[in-house]
Amino acid sequence: MTTESIRHHDTDVLILGSGGAGLFGALHAHRANPDLRITIAVKGLLGKCGCTRMVQGGYNVALNPKDSIERHFMDTIEGGKWLNHQELAWKLCNVAVERIIELENELGCFFDRNPDGTLHQKAFAGQTFDRTVHKGSLTGIEIINRLSEQVWARGIERLEEHRAVALIPSKDGSRIAGVLLIDMRDGGFRLVRAKAVLLATGGGPSMYRYHTPSGDKTCDGMAMALHAGLTLRDMELVQFHPTGLVAGNDTRITGTIIEEGLRGAGGHVLDGDGERFMHKYDPRGERATRDIVSRGMYEEMRKGKTGPNGGLYITMRHLDPVMVRREFKGMVDRCRDVGFDLVSGLVEVTPTAHYMMGGVVFETDTSTALTGLFAAGEDTGGIHGANRLGGNGVANSTVFGGVAGDSMAAWIAAEKPGLAEPDQAAVDAAVTRCLTPFGRKGGDLNGLRERMLDLMWDDVGIIRDRDGLTRALAALDDLSAELEATGVAEASRVFNLTWHDWLNLQSQLLVSKAIATAALAREDSRGAHYRADFPETGPLETSANTLVRMVDGRLVLSTAPVAFTRVRPGETLIRDAVAAE
Ligand SMILES: Cc1cc2nc3c(=O)[nH]c(=O)nc-3n(C[C@H](O)[C@H](O)[C@H](O)COP(=O)(O)OP(=O)(O)OC[C@H]3O[C@@H](n4cnc5c(N)ncnc54)[C@H](O)[C@@H]3O)c2cc1C
Predict the structure, then answer these.
(1) For residues 187 and 527, what is the distance between their CA atoms, to the nearest angstrom?
(2) Containing structural domain, residue 493
(3) Which of 489, 414, 412 is nearest to 444 (CA)?
(4) Which residue in 25, 178, 467, 488 is a FRET match for 259, CA 20 to 30 A apart?
């Protein structure tokens, strides 16, 4: 048994993460049973971290009488290239309607409105109807501020700056017993026992050279899931957003996005010579889906048709400047902050890793294969298939976060589980793994991170092939071995960010291997996954999902056929095909 002294905390429901999924999980569990003891543990500060707060464009929901849930669903399936879990996608489109009403009428969000009082819904790329609800171009701040206030107003406990490091099974292995965390403020361990746990740490492809997610997101949840024996699906499906800002190498603003609504509103993407090029790649031009625009841009960048800093440009200067200032105030301000004029000039941009469509296998009620563990938000896989539609991300986290809160409360009420005795061997192993770098000589963790960013960008990025993926897997193994041998020089654990960088890298490298393993196995091109050596999309009828899990420390790959439970390739659920016109 470890000699480490571990603090304890008991709760009925433990929620990991305070994005849209985590906060909705807490609020719904509390609403279902106000007597439940609920604890949110989060790596950052509640209300100030994660990507939901960063949501710019908005929230997809079929509200307009000319739109329909079926149309939203079909856009999601077509965009996902038929790899979606159809029941999850169906639930997303249905529950989004009640969730947006809940956000406004119960939780206090104000979204932009039309003169007639209805919610304003704007165009987002890849969709057949303008259905994206928003608050200017800073929608996530509105959502997270209101959700945080509601959480603060209830007796929900908070463990802020607490990093989850391991899902701990019960001694008899039959269910989850709790989660081991590090209190980042003093570096001590805390074991939280819970009847039900929600995994909502938000994934986040932060292992790529250019990436959008917040700095606290390093795929810890997916890594913990792998260690706990859970299966991840479709990990090769990493979405690149076409318009990440290029603001120089010395600022973290580089890689962060300016929103898709700019292309939806008629923005043009230009090469380094100032020429439009997207119609070469897709008749929809800049309004094609993210995968196609990102790939077109990457191809042009590879041809060297770039601006001074290696990026391309987006411009709105041919559009009404009053409209651009009014509709995209947040984006105009952000560009100005880094020296670009969005209204009448050129803004240098690059595709940037944005979202993971893959993640933990889970059910429509958010339960997982580990009894008592529920999952929601970007940690989960299946809803979006091969390509997430802009606006379906925050819908996903809020819809399924709420479902998770309901499900956990219902499960506790039905099963009446007590708190389980944790598996001490699992606790000891996790503590030992986390403390590894303190016994080792300090090294160049940042150099290691830089190499990971480059190899993922070059070999596991927008355009892939067998040679690159094989090379990447070997390089990732080397980096993992190097990480294990690299220590942290500072012995104190108090807010030791080098130690947390080390832990971040451990999660990122493991999940990077899952991405590369699945990408090597998928020998066709689907949505965000493009294989230069298999450029065609295989037959949709025989579509399969990739599945990765960890067995004896190695990642094992398998596949399973997609279940077309609602609609088959070639069919549609849209009854009135001209409704949107
Ligand atoms: C810049 C940007 C713009 C976006 N714009 C849109 C948009 O317009 N529309 C849209 O639909 N989607 C958008 N998205 C995607 C959207 O933000 C995500 O899909 C969604 O918000 C994810 O919600 P989540 O609750 O799963 O995770 P998050 O909101 O990211 O929350 C994750 C939480 O987990 C915590 N955490 C992480 N690791 C740990 C750990 N080890 N222990 C404890 N806590 C941990 C984090 O601190 C954070 O609180 C955007 C994303 C970005 C980055």
Answers:
(1) 42
(2) 438-538
(3) 489
(4) 25
Residues 248 and 345 in one domain: yes
Both structure tokens of 258: 């300016």
On whether residue 27 sits in a domain, the answer given is no
In the reported structure, the alpha carbon of residue 22 is separated from the centroid of ligand 1 by a whole-number distance in angstroms of 10
Residue type, position 393, single letter: G
Atom index in ligand 1 nearest the CA of residue 378 equals: 26
Query: Residues 487, 441: contact at Cβ < 8 Å?
Result: yes
Residue 442 covered by a domain: yes
Residue 263 domain flag:
yes
Residue nearest to atom 18 of ligand 1 (CA): 393
Measured between alpha carbons, how far is 240 from 123 in angstroms, rounded to an integer? 19
The DSSP symbol for 315 reads E
Residues with catalytic roles: 241, 263
Is residue 341, in this structure, part of any structural domain at all? Answer: yes
Q: How far apart are CA 186 and CA 174, in angstroms?
A: 33
Q: In terms of Cα–Cα distance, which of 356, 134, 381 is closest to 259?
A: 134
| Residue 581 pLDDT greater than 60, yes or no | no
Cα gap 581→130, rounded to integer Å: 11
CB atoms within 10 A of CB 453: 19
Question: Ligand 1 center to residue 466 CA distance, Å?
Answer: 31
d(CA 409, CA 30): 8
The answer to whether the CB of 316 falls within 8 A of the CB of 324 is yes
Two tokens at 505? 């890298």
- Give yes or no for residue 578 having a pLDDT over 70: no
Amino acid at 350: T
Domain count, the chain: 2
Domain of residue 503, CATH code: 1.20.58.100
pLDDT mean across residues, the chain:
95
pLDDT-based confidence at residue 258 (cuts at 50, 70, 90): confident
* pTM summary value: 0.96
